[in-house]
Amino acid sequence: MHRRSVIAGLAALTxxxxxxxxxxxxxxxxxxxxxxWTRVGEAAWTIADGxxxxxxGPISYLVSNDAxxxxxxxxxFWVSDNANSGIFIRCTNPAEVTVTNSYEVNIxxxxxxxxxxxxxxxxxxxxxxLPKTGxxxxxxxxxxxxxxxxxxxxxxxxxxxVADATHPSGRITLQYxxxxxxxxxxxxxxx
Length: 191
Prior knowledge:
Elements: H1 2-14, E1 26-27, E2 37-40, E3 46-48, E4 51-54, E5 60-68, E6 71-79, E7 84-91, E8 103-107, E9 137-145, E10 148-153, E11 156-163, E12 170-178, E13 181-190
């Protein structure tokens, strides 16, 4: 009887939700078309050699057709020093993307209010340490689980486990605001 209890206890530990493997990464952007995305705005997004780029036009967004709640996102991006971009998460109105209906994880080194420059969640979580991203490829990792958010840029934690429950679910959006903005890999997985 005692041996069965021990085995049952070990089995319970093995199969608890925290011990389960995370879902696999899947491309959110396929590298060659805008399938799965809706364009909002008139900026001139282009695709060439597996790179999604924009370097002119008014503020514009590419909004995922799928909505997400708890997830991890990895995005490789390249921006010029004067770029204004961002990745909006949990956007609740895909026709009108704003910081009031989503969370904007900023990519904007020269933002006048440096508290919410690259790596910050605008209006929610100031950047802990401002990363330098202009003129090179960078990796941004965003974790959204329940009301908790963590952001890492090039391995440097910029937002650490900040809580905000305003938007529990929504679309993921890539923004073009100014300068040169490029994305070459955007992946997501449920957590």
